[in-house]
């Protein structure tokens, strides 16, 4: 038996927040944008729907060392992230600047990598 997933105005507003931003968002950032569409969205509703959207594989978590998790729409090409030290926003960086041929210890095999850039975004400069 298939599970019926309810589409609500709140969930649609939360989805739209991620689509409009086109960058990783914190739950609080998603809340602010979603509330422009549906005023009654609460932070608890955002967290619940983010968990559902991750389970549905529509969103994926973006782990930032020393920061709270952000989330972005799944299915994008391989990319990395830029974290603004001033405003705390996270942006996507297209492509991959990490050398493919990495010197690993003997017997090690690489299966993936993470690469974060830090600095000041254009809005904060």
TrEMBL record:
PANTHER family: HYDROGEN PEROXIDE SENSITIVE REPRESSOR, ZINC UPTAKE REGULATION PROTEIN. One of its GO terms (molecular function) is DNA-binding transcription factor activity. Fe cation binds at residues 78, 113. Keywords: DNA-binding, Iron, Metal-binding, Repressor, Transcription, Transcription regulation, Zinc. The lineage of its organism: Bacteria, Pseudomonadati, Acidobacteriota, Terriglobia, Terriglobales. Binds 1 Mn(2+) or Fe(2+) ion per subunit. Belongs to the Fur family. It comes from the Bacteria. It holds the Pfam family FUR. InterPro entries: FUR, Fur_C, WH-like_DNA-bd_sf, WH_DNA-bd_sf. This is Fur family ferric uptake transcriptional regulator. Its cofactor is Mn(2+); Fe(2+); Zn(2+). CDD domains: Fur_like (cd07153). The keyword Amino-acid biosynthesis does not apply. GO terms for biological process: negative regulation of DNA-templated transcription; regulation of secondary metabolite biosynthetic process. Zn(2+) binds at residues 84, 87, 121, 124.
């Amino acid at each position: 038996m298939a599970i019926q997933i309810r589409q609500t105005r709140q969930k649609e507003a939360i989805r739209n927040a991620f689509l409009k931003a086109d960058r990783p968002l914190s739950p609080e950032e998603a809340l602010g944008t979603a509330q422009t569409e549906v005023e009654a969205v609460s932070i608890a509703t955002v967290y619940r729907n983010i968990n559902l959207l991750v389970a549905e594989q529509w969103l994926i978590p973006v782990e930032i060392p020393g920061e709270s998790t952000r989330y972005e729409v799944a299915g994008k090409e391989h990319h990395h992230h830029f974290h603004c030290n001033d405003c705390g926003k996270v942006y996507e960086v297209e492509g991959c600047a990490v050398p493919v041929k990495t010197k690993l210890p003997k017997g090690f095999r690489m299966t993936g990598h993470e690469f974060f850039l830090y600095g000041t975004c254009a809005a904060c400069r």
